Amino acid sequence: MTSEEQELVMGLAIGLGEGPTRTLDEVLAHFGESDGGALALRLLRDAMERRDADDVEMALILHAAADASVEEFLEPLTELFPADWHRDHEDIVSMLGRLRSPRTVPTLALATHWVPERLDWDENRALAVKAIWALGAVSGPEAREVLEGLLDDENEIIRENALNQLARRGEL
Fold it and tell me: What predicted TM-score, i.e. pTM, was given to this entire model?
């Protein structure tokens, strides 16, 4: 994406105290597209191929603005999550959490343990907590097993959140 295209997509984002400055229709017209989800997916795949962290962020902004389905993004998001060259790990976990699908469990389980270098400072383990809450919303034995395994984690925050999710699910 050019810097002008990035600026155009950024106009879809809601800033502190202000709404978007661009419409989805304006962005779609610029790219010659009619489907925001399809454009976001194309831009995401392109950004991944080029390992462009800024364009990953733009694709995710466009995805949100288009209110696109996460289901179509499952494969690229699970592939993208463990890459250390981007900054959107928490957004990816949040998106996967909205699916509430057993297919997200391996990536969410990884997110409970792996800390990207750029998040190493976070003693509250926000990424892991988001993943644990997402796991709590996934029905089935795979998610339950991951949550139960976290009850022995050395980190108290992780243990407590896993316990809370198991209790919320009625599985204690």
Answer: 0.88
